[in-house]
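Field reference: sequence -> structure
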Amino acid sequence: MTRVRKLDIEHMEKNSDVKKMMATLSDLENLDFLILRGFRFRSMPSLDGFGILHNLTRLKLEGLLTRLPDANSFPPNISNLTLFNTCLDEDPMPVLEKLPNLVHLKLRNAYTGLEMVISPEGLQVLKFFYIGELWHLRDIKVGEGAMPMLKVLEISHCPYLEKLPKEVFTKLSELRMLTSKSIATKVHRDEKVTISKLRHVDIKP
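Structure field:
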């Protein structure tokens, strides 16, 4: 087990002893990629204990979460993070934007709110950002100096997201968007000058 680099743990229940589990996993010195999955329609336990996994760089959380742990409780070297079907009530950005090494972020059915706010200077090294199946999201606000390294933005099945934050286009080179015909037309019309400067644009209805 000491050579294990990727581990997939399924059926985590709300009463699972996460601290004990993470103490055991911390002995796996080569563990680089961890996937934690909960039962469908059941909340996963609090994940406050997994900051001790210092060698972890890739993490996928799949299943309902009541809340995210604070930024200091995340494994410190996480560069690749996926939240899938977490259905968080609270905007995850106040936590995620503080992860210092986060380069690749995917949010798929991860958040149920109307608005997502990225603070000034947040997500300083992020290069790839995927947003999908955020069924209620209507607005993304981006503070000055946020995501200065962003190169690729993908948006899929966010039916109420009708405009894109202009602040992200300064460094962006690729935009991919799968949406309704009316929103695709609106984005093309409203962002025509901005997106024409990008190297690759693919907006599909």
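Note: The chain has a mean pLDDT of 91.
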